[in-house]
Amino acid sequence: IQNLLKAVPAERVVAAVRRPEKVADLAALGVQVRKADYDQPATLASAFAGASRILLISSSAVGVRVAQHQAVITAAKHAGVELLAYTSLLRADSSPLALAGEHVQTEAAIRASGLRHAILRHGWYTENYAMGIPMALQHGALIGCAGEGRIASAARADDASADAAVLVGDAIGNPVYELAGDDS
After folding, report:
1. Which end of the chain is more exposed for a tag (fewer CB within 10 A), N or C?
2. In the 8-state DSSP scheme, what is residue 59?
């Protein structure tokens, strides 16, 4: 939202959140704060009313997120949004990760909806690796499954900047963006 506010007046930005009381700072900036819960589809219609572009941030509820995402897709379609952007998984269509399947299903549901869309495939954030530093220091090794150990992570803020750019840009042709660091 901070990135959107650099390009869009606050009164044109809506923060659709589960707990509006937790984002009083955004409301104080003039951002419209509306209750929206993936598990309560009835909240989505009012949250999306008048919205032209929506960023669907992937749910973290493994095993149920496809249904949650479908509720958002359906509500976005009913609201008549002009663009639905979705934060998917880096190379979701070819990833061996077990989590990729839910992202592939959501991407397919978005395509099937007929909505103009953009798929924003986020890689593993640098902050996720940073959480492992204390254990790596304790054990003298950073243990993972990155093959030869090369990664190209990006900071969450960098991906958020890209997400905002897509929301305010043209997103012609239902693009898929693979978001990661430049060099491994």
Report:
1. C
2. P
Cα–Cα distance, 64 to 43 (Å, whole number): 18
Q: How far apart are alpha carbons 123 and 65 in whole angstroms?
A: 18
Pairwise CA distance, residues 23 & 76, whole Å: 22
**Roughly how many angstroms between the first and final C-alpha of the chain, as a whole number?**
28
Q: What is the widest separation between alpha-carbon atoms in the chain?
A: 54
Per-residue model confidence (pLDDT) at position 19:
96
Q: How much is the pTM?
A: 0.91
The answer to whether the CB of 153 falls within 8 A of the CB of 125 is yes
Give the residue ranges of the chain where pLDDT is below 50.
Answer: none
* pLDDT, position 49: 96
A 10 A CB-CB count for 111 gives 12
pLDDT in tens, 118-164: 999 999 888 988 888 899 899 998 777 767 777 888 999 999 999 99
Residue 150 CB neighbours (<10 A): 8
Residues in CB range of 177: below 8 A, 6 or more apart = 118, 119, 120, 121, 162, 166
pLDDT of residue 184: 82
